[in-house]
């Protein structure tokens, strides 16, 4: 066994173990930490495949942004998971039924899945040796799959707008800034000159 195979089994084993601990951990903070560990080891697998761009993308985006955001949200919300587990037995039969159906579907898909021999006989075009993996990925993404890439961007845009609309609530009694109204104010509307008699003090309605 060479060094590459040893690192592959190391990264793959730690990734599987971390993924299992993400699901089985009782503490949500520990689950997020195991998720970060799984992402880092998956990035190591990408490095072994020679896809350094995907490895750094996995670390920067998923570990540096998504997983850390999950950790901050879990720690700030301080959710009472004991309250969530009170109705666990009531929903256990329905959950077991859904899990059984899902397992049967997975077995049917895996059992009927075969590799097309034509795929091995007709490989894709080789990547030129004078360009990097990042440039090769960009060429394929922005030429052959440009329409799918734009469609994915539109889907994410619609999802973002939907999330904003669903969470937007109009609350009464809260002062909000209205920039056009502020810009349209004149000196007469913003200022009022009062004639105060000498040594009379400030009236109560002006205080």
Description:
The chain has helices at 3-24, 28-48, 52-77, 81-84, 88-112, 117-121, 133-144, 146-167, 179-183, 187-190. With 207 residues, the chain is mainly alpha-helical. α1 packs antiparallel against α2 and α2 packs antiparallel against α3 (52-77). It is elongated, with a radius of gyration of 30 Å.
Helices and strands in order:
Layout: H1 3-24, H2 28-48, H3 52-77, H4 81-84, H5 88-112, H6 117-121, H7 133-144, H8 146-167, H9 179-183, H10 187-190
Helix pairs in contact: 1-2, 2-3
Rounded average pLDDT: 81
Which value, in Å, is the CA radius of gyration?
A: 30 Å
Structural class comes to mainly alpha
Percent helix among the residues? over 70%
Instruction: Tell me the overall shape.
Output: elongated
The DSSP helix count reads 10
Low-confidence stretches: none
- Provide the succession of SSEs: HHHHHHHHHH
User: What about the largest sheet?
Assistant: none
Fraction of residues in β-strands? under 5%
Describe this protein with a few key phrases:
207 residues; 0% strand; mainly alpha; 71% helix
Brief digest:
Helix content is 71%, strand content 0%. Helix 1 (3-24) runs antiparallel to helix 2 and helix 2 runs antiparallel to helix 3. It has helices spanning 3-24, 28-48, 52-77, 81-84, 88-112, 117-121, 133-144, 146-167, 179-183, 187-190.
